[in-house]
């Protein structure tokens, strides 16, 4: 692939972006509220959730 991109990873990004774009504000808030907390540091808190079967951190 030109530019060295990983086609599988790019496909996952596309799927996640589309899934998130189709959510309304309340649905997005519910998804974020259900995320698994990972920790807190200088940059703030982080969490993991799954969007269309893809883990997102």
Describe what you observe in this structure:
- This protein is α+β, with helices and mostly antiparallel strands and about 55 residues long.
- Helix content is about 40%, strand content about 30%.
- It is built from two helices and three strands, in the order H-H-E-E-E.
- It has helices at about 5-20, 25-35; strands spanning about 35-40, 45-50, 55.
- It has a three-stranded antiparallel β-sheet with strand order 1-2-3.
- A hairpin with a 2-residue loop joins strand 2 (about 45-50) and strand 3.
- It is globular, with a radius of gyration of 14 Å.
- The model has no long low-confidence stretch (mean pLDDT about 90).
Overall structural class, as computed from helix and strand content, comes to: alpha+beta
Tell me the span between the first and last alpha carbons: 26 Å
- Which series of helices and strands comes N to C? HHEEE
Task: Report the mean per-residue pLDDT as an integer.
Answer: 90
Q: Work out the helix count.
A: 2
């Amino acid at each position: 692939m030109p530019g060295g991109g990983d086609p599988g990873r790019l496909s996952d990004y596309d799927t996640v972006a589309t899934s998130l774009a189709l959510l309304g504000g309340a649905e997005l808030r519910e998804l974020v509220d259900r995320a698994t907390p990972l920790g807190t540091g200088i940059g703030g808190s982080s969490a993991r959730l799954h969007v269309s079967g893809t883990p997102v951190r």
